[in-house]
Amino acid sequence: MDRSVAQGSRNDPEAAAPRAMRLDRRLDLVAGVLLVVVALGIYLATHTDRFYNHFVWQASAFLEGQAAIRYPVGSMADHLGNAFFQDVLPVASSDGVPRGLIPFPPLPALILVPFVAVWGLATDDQRIFTALAAVDVAICWWMLGRLRIKPISRLATVVFFAFGTAFWYAAQLATTWYQAHIVAVGLAMLAVGLALGGDRAAQDDERGLDSPGGALPTAVGGPGPPSAQAARPQRRRLAIDRRQFVVGLLFGLAATARLSILVAAPFFLLVGSGGSWWRRGWSAGIGAAIPVAALLAYNVAVTGHVFHPAYDHLYQLEARAYTRLGYHADWAAEDPRYLAQNLGIMFLSTPEILPTRLRDTLGTFDEPLCTTPGAQRGLFDMTCPLAVPRDIGMSVLLTSPAFLLLIPAVRRYGRSRLVTGASLAVLLVVLIDLMHFSQGWVQFGYRFSNDALPFALPLVAIGIDGLTDGTRRWAMPLAVGLVVVSIAVNAWGLVWALKLGW
C-alpha cells in the first residue's frame, strides 16, 4: 500500500471521524462500567439489613400459581416470617392456606421470580435491588449522554444523582418501597434517554414556541395548519413511530412500579421521534397503554376492582394507627388537602438542631440527651448530637441543594421542547405525590422526590452546563460546591439512619 495514501487517510478528518466515534463509545462504556462499580461499592458499604421483603413473598406466591401471599407466617418477632407486615389485606384462601394481598404493583416481584425460583424465601432481595440501583447510575450516564453538554456537566449530574439525592438512601436500603423506586427510576431514564436520542433538536430553543395564538404545536413539529392536516390520509395520522412506541412501553412499565410517574406523560408529547407532537404522543401512548392496561387487568382479575382495595385498607389502618403523622381517615388517599402539610415537609422540614431529647415520630422512645455535665456535642454522637435528621422527611433543598442548578435551565421554558416537557413532568409528578396521604416515612430526605428524578436530572445537567461555560468565574465553584454539599448531607443522613435503625 502506498505510504502517502495511508498517511493521507490518517490526516483526513472525515476518515478519522469513525475512529474517534468508536473511541468515544469505548470511553463512554468504560466510564459507565466504572460508575457502576463505584456506586455498587459505596451502596453496599452503607447497606443495612432490613426484613421488609414483600416482593419475595409475592414472587413466591406467583410461583405457586397464586396472587395472594402466604400470610401470616411466623411470629411477630420472626424476621424470617411475615407476621409483622402491616401492608397486607387478609383474603379468603382457595387452597386452605391463610393468605393476604399486598397493595403494591407487582413489577418488582416479577423481577424477583427467577431468583426466588432458585433460592426461595431466602432470596436476598435487598442486595439484588441494590445492584439494580448501581445499574441505574450507568443508565443515568447513558441518558445524559444524549444531551449536548460538556463531559464535566454530565459527570457532575450523575454523581449528584448517585450520592447527592434520596436515591442513595433508596439504593443502600432497597426494601419493598425503595425497590419500586429503583425499578421505576431506571425504566423512566431509559425512556427519556431513548426519546432524547431520537430527537436531537429537542434541546434547542425554537422561535415561536412561546408565542401567543396557539403556536406551540407548530413550533414543536406539530401537524401544521388545517389545510395541511386535511391533505394527509387518516392512516398517516395513525402511523406509529416504532422508537417512540418503545419509549412509551418503557415509560408505562415505570408507571406500573410507581403509578405517580404516569402523570409525566406530557414530556413525551414534546420530546421524542415521530416528527410531530401528535405522532410522538400517539406512538408513546400506545406503548404505555400496554403495561398500564395489563396492571389494571391484573387488579380486576385478582380483586374484582380496577384499583387495588388493599391500598385503601392500608390507608385506613395507618390513618388510625399513626395519629401523629397527620393522616385523615375521612380524606381520600390522594387528596389536595394533603398539599399544605406535605409541601412543608418537602421544602421546609429541617433537622432537629441541638436536640435535648432523642425521640421518634410515634413516640415509641424518648431518651434525654447531653445529660453528662460538660458534654460536648458531636456530629455523630448519639448521646449528645449537634443535629438529628427527622424520620418524617426533610427538605430537598437542604438534603439536595444541587437541585437549585436546574433554575438556569428552567429559564428556557417555552422555548426549548426538552426544558418545557421536563419542567411540566417534574411539576406534575411532584404535585401528585404531594397530594398523597403518606410522605414516605420512615426516610432520610424526601423519598418521593425519586419519582421526578428522570425528568429533573436533564434540567440539572443543562443548568450546570450553562453555568460552566467559562464566562462566569464563580459559576464552576458554585456548581461543584452544591454537588459536594449534597453528597456530604446525604452521607451524614445515612450515618444517622444506620445509627437510628431506619
Short account of what is shown:
With 502 residues, this protein is mostly helical. It has helices at 3-11, 13-45, 54-63, 107-119, 125-144, 151-163, 166-173, 176-197, 216-219, 226-231, 234-237, 242-257, 267-270, 277-303, 309-321, 339-348, 396-399, 407-410, 417-434, 453-467, 475-500; strands at 69-70, 89-91, 99-101, 352-353, 357-359, 366-368, 387-388.
Structural account:
- The structure is a single chain.
- The protein starts with a helix and ends with a helix.
- It is built from 21 helices and seven strands.
- A hairpin with a 7-residue loop joins strand 2 and strand 3.
- The chain is mainly alpha-helical and 502 residues long.
- The protein has helices at residues 3-11, 13-45, 54-63, 107-119, 125-144, 151-163, 166-173, 176-197, 216-219, 226-231, 234-237, 242-257, 267-270, 277-303, 309-321, 339-348, 396-399, 407-410, 417-434, 453-467, 475-500, and strands at 69-70, 89-91, 99-101, 352-353, 357-359, 366-368, 387-388.
- The protein has a three-stranded antiparallel beta sheet with strand order 1-3-2. It has a two-stranded antiparallel ribbon with strand order 4-7. It has a two-stranded antiparallel ribbon with strand order 5-6.
- Residues 1-10 and 210-231 have low confidence and may be disordered.
- Helices cover 56% and strands 4% of the residues.
- It has a domain at 141-224 and 231-313 and 390-500.
